[in-house]
Write a structure and sequence with these properties.
CATH architecture of the largest domain: Orthogonal Bundle
Number of domains: 3
Helix content: 40-55%
Structural class: alpha+beta
Order of helices and strands: HEEEEHHHHHHHHHEEEHHHHHH
Largest sheet: 4 strands, antiparallel
Shape: elongated
């Protein structure tokens, strides 16, 4: 005979001598659920269950939770929700099994690393790995890919923007935008290629209101260049100082300089031929070097005549130097240029060329730009040479 389950009756149900026995609830009551019961083992453990007939036939039993962790009313309500799932053609036990094996964001990260990340440039790979390690994995890694929502992404974006994520020392609004862009790419792949998320669920990054980004162009004035050079002469790591100086003299990117091999240079002719594998555009880039750049390279070569790399690693034999970040920070501080980025040396190189009247086309070729619009960011700097030229014309007319 069925008995309505209450806190009292669940406690009083006798334990069997061996194995386990299920005591079903009296489902004829108003809120009763057919198949809802409590399973009692020989040692007295009590667990709420729901027994049902799945769409494919047969009988299955779904474990709801242990008593007294679950109250009778909460367990009965859960059984009622499971009953509605069954009526809708869903097998709760199968759904639970599918959920246990459903891919997490950590699984998505591994797929991204294995099948996509390796095709990106080294600097881009490092940047992606940093964002994954610092923000994405700690915050979302354990969540199911299918369970990530717009709210989750918005909260992450907001916290990175405000500098509230673990390990952050300041707000980073631009970084927050980059993290959302990376997440969006990963979820597009999860939907379209790896089938980790249904098309109907969509990309949870869509609809994120990103932080406004202002174009930033920082150029060193002559007095600032003098301070920078003085700080470089005082740096204890002169190899790092030479890396920075070569960037100022050539406008080359940091990665191109650090990976540079002596086989790429023809110093008597003042040329540097950068292989396509080392350039951002994946094209061979031929650079004409200034006498100052050539002199610097000759002095570096003289110090280490047998080296393969222009800047060999001080730690790993036969490898190039990996970075100069600590030294760059010291130089910026010594020179009082706290807002200067390494990439601003490239902008400074371009600005000096323009101030000497060099055309944008020539500047683009020196910097390795493949598209004219990339060089056009420097167009406004050409105003001063143009003004000087037109002033000379006006002066001649006035004096005629």
């Amino acid at each position: 005979m069925r008995q309505r389950l209450t806190e009292k009756t669940v406690r009083e149900q006798p334990a069997p001598e061996k194995n386990a026995k299920v005591y079903f609830d009296d489902w004829t009551h108003k809120d009763g659920v057919k198949g809802f019961g409590v399973r009692v083992t020989a040692n007295g453990a009590r667990t709420f269950v729901y027994e049902y007939r799945p769409p494919g036939g047969g009988t299955k039993r779904y474990t709801i939770g242990k008593f007294p962790d679950w109250s009778v009313s909460a367990a009965r309500k859960a059984a009622a929700e499971l009953r509605e799932d069954v009526r809708a053609g869903i097998d709760p036990q199968q759904a639970k099994s599918d959920d246990r094996t459903a891919p997490t964001v950590n699984d998505l990260i591994e797929s991204y690393r294995a099948e996509h990340l390796e095709r990106k440039r080294e600097t881009s790979r490092r940047d992606d790995e940093d964002m994954i390690r610092l923000f994405i994995a700690p915050r979302l890694g354990k969540k199911k890919v299918a369970d990530v929502t717009l709210d989750h992404v918005e909260a992450l974006h907001r916290d990175i923007t405000d500098g509230k994520c673990k390990g952050q020392t300041r707000p980073t609004p631009y970084r927050a935008n980059r993290v959302v862009s990376l997440l969006s790419k990963m979820f597009n792949l999860a939907i379209d290629r790896w089938k980790m998320r249904d098309q109907a669920e969509g990309n949870p990054c869509r609809g994120i209101s990103k932080n406004r980004e202002e174009g930033r162009e920082r150029f060193l004035e002559d007095e600032e260049i003098a301070r920078l050079i003085k700080a470089l002469t005082e740096l204890d790591d002169q190899q790092a100082a030479n890396v920075i100086m070569l960037a100022l003299l050539t406008g080359a990117r940091r990665g191109e300089i650090l990976k540079a091999e002596w086989s790429q240079f023809d110093l008597p002719k003042g040329k540097w031929i950068k292989p396509s594998a080392y350039t951002k555009q994946k094209r061979i880039h031929r650079v004409v070097l200034s006498p100052e750049a050539v002199d610097l390279l000759y002095s570096i070569r003289k110090a280490e005549p047998e080296a393969i790399y222009v800047f060999p690693s001080p730690k790993v034999q036969g490898a190039p130097r990996q970075d100069v970040k600590p030294q760059w920070e010291r130089v910026r501080k010594t020179a009082g240029l706290d807002d200067l980025r390494f990439h601003d040396l490239r902008h400074t190189y371009a600005s000096l060329l323009i101030s000497d009247g060099v055309s944008l086309n020539v500047i683009g070729r020196l910097l390795g730009h493949t598209q004219a619009q990339t060089t056009m960011r420097y167009a406004h700097l050409a105003d001063e040479p143009l003004r000087e030229a037109t002033n000379r014309v006006g002066k001649r007319i006035r004096e005629a």
